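Here is one chain, start to finish.
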Amino acid sequence: MRIGNTEVRPLGGAWGCLAMILVSILLSVVCTIGLNLIIR
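Its structure:
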């Protein structure tokens, strides 16, 4: 997958898959907490 001039490749293997899942979970938690703080 290309974004502009940079090539983005998903990490290979089971560890890459686990890392992507963990990163997505962490980002969703951070975004939720951030939105709650902004809305208050």
